[in-house]
Design brief:
Blueprint: H1 2-34, H2 48-58, E1 62-69, E2 72-78, E3 84-90, E4 96-102, H3 113-117, H4 122-132, E5 136-146, E6 152-161, E7 167-172, E8 179-181
Amino acid sequence: MKRNVFVSSAAAVVLVAGGPVAAAAASTAGDAARAPTAVTAVPADVSAETAAGAALKKFPGVVESLDLDGSVWHVDVIGKGGKHAELEVDASSGAVTQRNSDDNDDDNGNEYAPLIAAKVTAVQALKAAVAAHPGQVRSVSWDDDDNDNGKTSRYWNVEVKTSGGQTRNVHVDPASGKATLSHDSDDNDSDSSNDSNSDGGGN
């Protein structure tokens, strides 16, 4: 009991001698000791190109698609004989996990023949897209569209996020590598030259 009285008296002397400054310092020190440690978020350092390379190292073949979902890149790879594998690449560490793989027994892999024969790969397509429309690649996918005339149009669809937060879907020709802005890009691009020919046409 005497010890507690002595400590309290000593604290009072310090506060009287130091005044408000000493009191504030003591309070700040106490708050700092009680405050929880801040957790710094780890940035997604693994780019689409790096994720594709990591996936192909784990499962050799041709990238059919890849897209960023939160902190994970989902990568679909077509291997020899049309074997399909789904892999995940950690966007922070680059660690690769193979989720599953299966054989395409229906047509001996002929479904993927145009993809495998394409001169422009997924990585080359994303590079072409970013060169034409700078930003961060969020996804790349191989698309087959049937036209009204009965012909099939094949292209790489690359989703690019610009520094201004706009989403641009860029179509890259698998033979020439030519990048063309799609009409279904973000509405924020409504003032771009590509949208000047849209049916809406209003300002």
